[in-house]
Write a structure and sequence with these properties.
single chain, alpha+beta, 2 domains, two-stranded antiparallel sheet, 10 strands, elongated
Length: 351
């Protein structure tokens, strides 16, 4: 062991009291789906909404690790990594019970200075990853329908757009794969904390509660779409103008739909408006109606249409979430809630 004061003493490594990722007890997503009659799509949607954690179980997968010394460590001794004394290899480490990363004999352990963030040094080297590694979505993840490809580099380890990011003990340490490595949704792993959350989030609900939630989400979608796409030229929402715009869409796309009246739009907005004109988190007396689904269809037909129904859903959900953020909507609205409702609108799935 070197005596250089710049290096972190590995003997203190396992006394560091930071919030590292140390999950326990894993269950395959496919097993959870089968046992509790929950679709894999719903599990993935809940994960995409950042409500649970998912992991991949790697078995001596060849890849590259990018890792950082944290504030308390300051700097690693590369000899200690080579000798198997770091927290991804040492048996006394809490990480060792969850995941390991064994460097290749031929791999050079590269050290780079970092001039921003909480770490002063970054390390990169090749090796073999085993155990459970947390995955997080990227901007591409929601477009993937079946298997996630862990590959995020070319043959010389250059970066390419990734479908998911594979993390280690925290959100700094991550893995890079230069070969295709496909992981099916059913083989993703759920840790114990996420297992409990999923049980609550997917528990059967009373018919009355389901009906209330369905009408609430429908009203939210209608309010957001009208507010986004049916304003006047000076960017003000006028109910008469909104009705004219929607009826123009009706004439253009589906004359069989009943004309939309100004009074209907006014009533829908009043359900979600406080006395001062701001949006309310609670709906007053709104009910589900086929007329609102028809409005959703008309806006989708004009602004988000595609031959693929899945693409229509993604475009609609993305547009709605942008409006939620823009308006600082007071209630929690998630992509999975929106998608769950929209996919049941028959007009959207009819080609």
């Amino acid at each position: 062991m070197t005596s250089n004061s710049d290096f972190f003493d590995a003997s203190d490594l396992f006394n560091i009291s930071e919030q590292f990722d140390i999950p326990d007890i894993f269950c395959r997503a496919g097993e959870f789906s089968k046992k509790f009659n929950v679709s894999l799509e719903d599990i993935i949607s809940i994960w995409l909404d950042d409500k649970i954690s998912l992991y991949v179980n790697l078995r001596s997968e060849y890849c590259r690790i990018i890792r950082y010394a944290n504030k308390k460590e300051h700097r690693y001794d590369t000899f200690d990594i080579r000798a198997g004394g770091d927290f991804y290899q040492h048996e006394s480490s809490s990480q060792f019970t969850v995941r390991t990363f064994i460097p290749c004999d031929q791999s050079e352990i590269n050290e780079y200075p970092v001039f921003s963030g909480s770490s002063f040094f970054k390390y990169a080297y090749d090796g073999y990853a085993c155990g459970f590694w947390k995955i997080k979505p990227t901007k591409m993840t929601h477009l993937v329908r079946d298997n996630y490809n862990l590959r995020n580099a070319n043959d010389v380890w250059g970066s390419i757009p990734s479908e998911v990011i594979v993390y280690g003990r925290d959100d700094n340490d991550h893995l890079i794969f230069n070969k295709d490595d496909l992981i099916s949704h059913s083989d993703l792993q759920i840790d114990s904390a996420s297992y409990k959350k999923l049980l609550k989030l997917t528990a059967p609900q009373s018919n009355e509660f389901v009906a209330m939630e369905r009408s609430y989400i429908q009203n939210v979608i209608v309010i957001l779409l009208i507010n986004k796409y049916c304003k006047s030229n000076n960017d003000k929402l006028l109910f008469l103008t909104a009705a004219d715009i929607l009826n123009f869409y009706r004439e253009k796309h589906c004359k069989e739909i009943k004309k939309i009246s100004r009074s209907s739009i006014s009533r829908w907005f009043n359900e979600f408006t406080n006395d001062d004109g701001t949006l309310s988190v609670k709906m007053k007396n709104g009910r589900w109606s086929s007329e609102k689904d028809e409005v959703i269809y008309l806006v989708a037909k004009e602004h988000c249409w595609d031959e693929n129904p899945d693409v229509i859903l993604e475009l609609l959900v993305s547009s709605l979430l942008d409006e939620v953020e823009k308006l600082n909507f007071p209630g929690e609205i998630t992509g999975s809630q929106l998608k769950h409702y929209l996919k049941d609108i028959k007009l959207l799935s009819a080609q």
